Amino acid sequence: MDKSVRQIKLGMFLRPAGHHVAAWRHPEADADAGFNFERFIKTAQLAESGLFDMLFMADTSGVPIESLEGASATAYVTWIEPFTTMVALAGVTKNIGLVCTSSTSFEQPYSIARKFASLDLVSGGRGGWNLITSVNPLEFQNFGPAQQPDRDSRYDRAREFAKVVLGLWNTWDADAIIMDRAKGRFFDPAKVRRLDHKGAHFHVRGPLNVARSPQGQPVLVQAGASEDGMNLAAETADVVFAATPTIEIARKFYADLKSRVAACGRNPQHVLVMPGFQVMVGRTEEEARQKYHELLDLIPTEIGVQHLSQYIDYDLRGYPVDGPLPEIPLAKLNTSRTALLAELARKEQLTIRQLYQRISGGRGHFQTYGTPKQIADTFEEWTTTGAADGFNYMAPILPAALEDFIEFVIPELQRRGLFRRRYNGSTLRENLGLPIRGAD
After folding, report:
1. Spatial CA neighbour of 326 closest among 341, 316, 336
2. Contact between residue 369 and residue 394 where contact means Cβ atoms under 8 Å apart
3. Which value, to the nearest 10 degrees, does the dihedral of the CA atoms of residues 76, 80, 81, 83 take?
4. What gap in Å lies between CA 15 and CA 40, rounded to an integer?
5. How far apart, in whole angstroms, are the C-alpha atoms of residue 330 and residue 339?
6. What is the largest CA-CA distance in the chain?
7. Beta carbons of 362 and 273 less than 8 angstroms apart
8. In what order do the strands lie in the sheet with 97-103?
9. Strand, coil or helix: 212
10. Residuewise pLDDT in 10s, the chain (440 residues)
11. DSSP-based three-state secondary structure for 131
């Protein structure tokens, strides 16, 4: 192995029962994890035993209306709110990072800065914020009567939002709190600053009323793959959670994103690209294949079509499920994932059924199955040929698939020198190999 290649970074994408759309139906899945916090504790501690860098939890603020209609009610649509989950998990873990989603469309910068700075203190420097703008109209209907803004407006707000949050996290110097009992001085006023931000969307005075993060600033994660999303990630992110279903797409995304980071005057090595990976491992290839297809067989047709329709933002009901994907007006849609999946369907001549089966485990991300050696070969190829710095592991079922991954794949990666044998430090930034922000 080339010693100049950094070790693989691994996130554990936490989702009730697992990432496969039919995961909760599998007999080895924790089907009640969305409302049984003990399940989350077990999974978090299991991931920490496997030396994962971080837990990652996505979020949405609505229930798809189709899920309330009869046959479509088999979708998993309830879970404990992610920030609450991460704060609670801080008390039952010691090393693993804790990253979750909050949307710039529904909150205010000061509250986000305060919440995630507090998570960082509670966890001893393991906190991170996944910045999203939200695109589902149903979510906006839960936050007042205002019409959903267009993509340009959402990203204008998000860019200013991130600037304010990063600014608030820097309003206290690391040594500002002196607690001089003799002189009666709790802090040094010269080391605390007001932000006094006045922009198009926000007026924020500051400073933040939470002490500086143990890791300088919480880790900022961003997952946008559109032109606006990639620019925002290049400007602000420490970690980019990418949706790249093939290694060719991944390499293109990786090179593009890193070049944008450099154009922003930042060090490309200080922004990690970690695509989502759905992996099913078996002791033999046949065992892995059988596990994979068992899950495919659990997907009801209507759920597969509904899920794919929601994912590409185009209603596929009424089209022959064993026919080709219809022509989709990409210019009218807001999601870059639609274009990626349409390209994949055309390239491999996939039917609607085959396409929804393809994304059901990885939800638009790369998915594979195989032996520990085959999985490790794939990880090594991606991280040594300019496709990824690490991966956000999306276990198809939890906890069974995670247990297999830790038992079989982690040792193979360690044997090759591709993965750590112990945590590198006490903070998420240290374990990810990232500097304190401002040192770019």
Report:
1. 316
2. no
3. -130
4. 9
5. 7
6. 79
7. no
8. 272-273, 239-240, 219-222, 127-132, 97-103, 54-57, 9-13, 390-393, 276-281, 366-370
9. coil
10. 444 557 999 999 999 999 888 889 999 999 999 899 999 999 999 999 999 999 999 988 877 655 555 545 566 778 899 999 999 999 999 999 999 999 999 999 999 999 999 999 999 999 999 999 987 777 888 888 667 888 888 999 999 999 999 999 999 999 999 999 999 999 999 999 999 999 999 999 999 999 999 999 999 999 877 889 999 999 999 999 998 888 999 999 999 999 999 999 999 999 999 999 999 999 999 999 999 989 888 888 888 888 788 778 788 989 999 999 998 876 655 566 677 778 888 889 999 998 888 776 666 788 899 999 999 999 999 999 999 999 999 999 999 999 999 999 999 999 999 999 999 999 999 999 999 885 44
11. strand
How many residues are present in the chain?
Answer: 440
CA-closest candidate to residue 317, choices 356, 357, 361: 356
Both tokens of 404, joined, read: 């297999």
Helix (H, G, I), strand (E, B) or coil at 268: helix
Give the distance, in angstroms, between the CA of residue 227 and the centroid of all CA atoms in the same chain: 18
Eight-class DSSP state of 213: B
The ranges assigned to domains in the chain are: 9-284+364-432
Give, as one character, the DSSP assignment of residue 143. Answer: S
129: which strand partners?
A: 100, 220
Other C-beta atoms closer than 10 Å to the C-beta of 91 total 10
The values of phi and psi at residue 180, to 5°, are -85, 95
CATH 3.40.50.1000 assigned to domain 9-284+364-432? The reply is no
